[in-house]
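Q: Here's a chain of 514 amino acids. Please give me its 3D structure as tokens.
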Amino acid sequence: MSLLRRALWGLLLVVAAGCRSEPPPDGITVLVEAPPDSLDGRFALTAIGQRMVQLIAPGLLTFDDTSRPVPELAESFRALSPTLVEFTLRPGLTFHDGTALTSEDVKATYDGVRSKALQSPKVDRYAPVEEVEVVDDRTVRFHLRGAYAPLLAELSLSIIPAERAGLDGVALQASHPVGAGAFRFESQPDEEHLTLVPFEGYHLGPPAIPRLYFRVVRDETTRVLELLKGRADLVTNAVSPAVLPLLRKQPGLRVLVRPGTGYAYLGFNLRPGPLADVRVRQAVCHLLEVKPLAEHKFHGLAEPATSMIPATHWAYTPGEGCRYNPAEAARLLDEAGYGDPDGPGGLPRLRLSLKVSTDRFRKSVALVLQEQLARGGIAVEVRSLEFGTLFNDIRRGNFEMVTLKWASVIEPDLMRNVYHSSNVPTEENHWGGLNRGALMDPELDALLEEASQVELSERKAAYARVGARLEELLPYAPLWHESSVAVVSRRLEGFEPSAHNFISSLARARKVGP
């Protein structure tokens, strides 16, 4: 039994022995691993930030577990031509401040985020939009510069009041966000605490939860203890799989699982250094034993990945992934100029660093990767960083290798954001580009652009070509797709985990009991 599990069993014994709990507050407490980077959807980049924003300020549409677009603030939408999409808003929509939400607000939101003056890290995503046209109070049209298949994925952006959509409204929206979501902002006394209350004017009816308390708890042991003591009601995808059997035995808790689209990977920095050589990246990949790691570390809650796209996705094409082959890894390292200096078990061929968050489980995974690479002659220094520091380092290219995961993969055009050479984070784009490893490949750029412009019936074949080129370049070593797991207290009923790690079902959940 690991030290973490022994510690948690010890904590459980203390709780079971009669340690008194503080009474829960008048509401539901949700624990998160890190504070949101922003409560303004135009600036939120982290999964935590975007999930919270969905509760406050949803967009025209959202996505179901099959990655199909479904209306949210929109009542319906339709393509009038390959370059024209029309949305009809739900009748009677209002913002949290009581003002009506109309097509003018939709236009102002998208005109604002497309403005260079706003300095949104998402501005480039809307380059295909030529004009947003207001037809009437409930009808708005998006005119495109050309055919753009992934458009709908970008139209889930939070809709905010027109008076906040420009540069003058950025500070106010960040400090006191207003939207038309199920919950409205009440307070945020510091970055580690956020309180939301039901919005009586929500278009699907006010939520039954009287208050939502978000608390940042960075340490997993503390998160588990808070659940055991009854001081927390919901933790999503922030409890190690090894701990879940312990929690399943507790009468006051439930563990809910759903197949997920989360994607874990080992990311490489392709800027000058050893990993700029694709042979070194391939060697690293051949030294990874992904399947046994996924089976034993995740207890059946992860599937080995061959690419960013999960097997359940419409765009999935089978690939090879990281095939364990230490002999091939040795050959590649020799060819790249990293020969074995003194034979097996002696000095390493080369040294690399691997950055990871302070989360104990993620760090334990990194240590297994360290051991696997060491057997092949690659010495790895694991550096554990608080998530905010880690995220900032990654955005600015201050890493060699990093283990991270995409919380969800819905639209395969995400690959264009992650791998296209125009999306390398820089000061000019406010470090918002997602190509954090700085992959530069004109052939891949052309394939990604083609995939975003082809007819819907041709998209799967186009992404198969993208996948084949990515296997050659290997900017990421694919690890696994993780299940979506929620630990829920008995006080919270009706919450359902999402394949994409959304928490929007809190709008339909309810608090029961004291």
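Q: Can you summarize the key feature?
A: The radius of gyration is 24 Å.
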